[in-house]
Amino acid sequence: MQRNQRRLTLLLAAALSAVLTMLAVAPAGAASKPSRSNGANNRVIFVHGHAPFGKHDCTKTFSAARKHFTNKKWKGNLLTFGYYTKNTKCSANVTGSRDTPIKDVAKKFANYVSRNYTEKGIKVDVVAHSMGGLVVRAALHYTHQRAAGFPKKLYIEDVVTLGTPHAGITKSRAVLCGKARQCTDMKAGSGFLKALPGKMPSTTRNGNMSTDWTTISSYDDGTVTEASGIAGTANHEAQYKAGINHGELITTTSGSHNGRIKYSTTWTKFHKRVSPVEQARLAVYWHATT
């Protein structure tokens, strides 16, 4: 009897030791990669653009867009990410100024997403306005490249950029923007822009989740040309012909607007389409924007 009890005790001790060993050697962020799916359950992170005075009220900036998503029965949390020290009312905010390089902002954003979501096996969607789209683009690119200071992987399912200067801001806006580092990073031909590949980062290698990209631009955007807003190859591209300026791309939530969309390599004719914010919602809901 005592021999059996001793044997059982030894077996339990060995089993416990094995479990502890497995826990000790399990890699950080070992949560399994989620699968892609349509639906309104994902957390959506809204990322603002450059601010001339180095501050945003995140609630105010994305008020119309978040209200639209809510009214359309979006179930996941609608979050905001900011990157200026003087920002207010952001769900998450990191320190920085207009002189913080966009790549450094991207690193902070990537680590925020990794720490709070990816490492827990949670996927997110992102809707970014203006320079915010470059932040997200760089975050995914340098994460895929395993660049120093970036996380090992990111689970970002869908990204929509609205009025993002993928090929740089207009010359007149570059002059108005000034010499702050973020302004020089956004100039056409800058070292920052040249370092980004032409195709939007969506690879599944190194454990990353595949990311579906939609880029949206407007012919009436005085800050980012209609060509720059969709520069680089994305899964889906949409343009609005007239009546929507740079700021209105993230605030126009209703109505019928003259626009077109690219299917594979072919553009449709300009026709009446949904608003830019509704286009963004559809893009993060579905695998494809139609």
Automatic annotation (TrEMBL):
Keywords: Signal. Coiled coil: none annotated. The keyword Signal applies. InterPro entries: AB_hydrolase_fold, DUF676_lipase-like. Residues 44-177 form the DUF676 domain. The keyword Signal applies. SUPFAM superfamilies: alpha/beta-Hydrolases. Pfam families: DUF676 (PF05057). It comes from the Bacteria. Residues 1-30 form the signal peptide. This is DUF676 domain-containing protein. It comes from Streptomyces badius. The lineage of its organism: Bacteria, Bacillati, Actinomycetota, Actinomycetes, Kitasatosporales.
